[in-house]
Amino acid sequence: MRSFMGRDILSLKDFERQEFTHIFGVARFMEDIARKRRNVDMLADKTMVVAFYQPSTRTRLAHEAAMHRLGGHVTGIADAKMTRAGDWYQESIKDTVKMLEFYGDVIVMRHFKQGAPAEAAKWASVPIINGGDGWGEHPTQILTDFYTVWREKGRLDGLKWLAVGDMRMRTMHSLAYGLTQFDCPITFVSPPEMSLTEEMKAELKNYSLDYKEAEHVEQAIAEADVILVEPVVQPDYTQARQEAGEHGFTPANYKITRELLQTKAKSDAILLHSLPRMDEIPPDVDITRWSRYWQEAYNGVVMRMALLGLVLGAME
Ligand code: CP
Fold first, then answer.
1. Which of 20, 109, 312, 314 is the S-S candidate for 51 at Cβ 3.0 to 4.6 Å?
2. Within 6 Å (CB) of ligand 1, which residues are found?
């Protein structure tokens, strides 16, 4: 297996099967540190730079919390508008990254432009972690989700997935690529205008992903072991930022309600959502035996601890 030291984390297309399980093992080790709520000194001599060109609550702060937990240092850009990359100059990724690489030892980037972290990786001498790029990918989120399933079920192979939401979403792309390494059939449910593109379908067939599509969650929920939900009411991920405005409600086809879970879902299925949510999972689902999104959020810190430990060479 290739070492993770110094590696960029850009896409789950780059991950081999045994690399997933290796990361899960490291995350399991980190979980004990996170649970104690006492920072250690594993990365005391390292600094993480965040470069966020789009809003984020979880991805940026989970990386920062992970770095603090491991005793490391954090600097960077939480709002690119307040830098030369986001003002009149519109400084290029290359010029920005050629600075940031001297400010720390790893860069976590979120960008509205698909491929921006890969562009950064071309120029940076330190590892780049993709924190979400346009409609591209969100690898650290799906690694978190896979870890949550692995911890709950003890395996990924043999589990049936249901993914509900906008299939243009970066999380959905990373999910599909990641599942190609496991024996995990998946059903995608999305509005027609948000369905998998023909290009993506061809790619997934090429990777031998066992997938099908359905129109309504009711058609697929009964056989699902893992239900992963994302909004269909959401901003345009190719924009730097959008203000709240008028928006519609989620149609029943793409909504997971308490009643649906009680009447149709497997009793031991688990429900994931990377958050933020709109109305696709009503709050009365939070305290049910299916919901795991708060555990998923906790694992978001654990997984980032594992990734930072690995790419910075503190863990093998
Ligand atoms: N799950 C996720 O990516 O959340 P943020 O947009 O808050 O980072």
1. 109
2. 56-59, 132, 141, 274-275
Bridge-partner residues for 162, per DSSP? 187, 227
d(C-alpha 177, C-alpha 187), whole Å: 14
Average confidence score pLDDT of the chain: 97
Q: Does 1 fall in a domain?
A: no
Q: In the predicted model, what is the mean pLDDT of residues 58-86?
A: 96
Residue of 52, 54, 57, 281 with the most ligand 1 atoms within 8 Å of its CB, for mutation: 57
Q: Hey, which of 59, 60, 174 would you mutate to test ligand 1's pocket, going by the most ligand atoms within 8 Å of its Cβ?
A: 59
Sign of the Cα pseudo-torsion (153, 3, 170, 175, in order): negative
Are 265 and 200 found together in one domain?
yes
Residue 243: per-residue pLDDT: 86
For residue 84, being part of any structural domain is answered with yes
Question: Residue 132 is encoded by which pair of tokens?
Answer: 């979400």
| pLDDT of amino acid 70 | 98
E strand or H helix that includes residue 282? none
* Domain shared by 123 and 159, yes or no: no
Query: CA neighbours within 13 Å on the CB side: how many for 91?
Result: 17
Q: How far apart are CA 106 and CA 100, in angstroms?
A: 9
- pLDDT of amino acid 236: 87
Please give the helix or strand (H or E) that residue 49 lies within, else none: strand 47-52
Average pLDDT over residues 145-161: 98
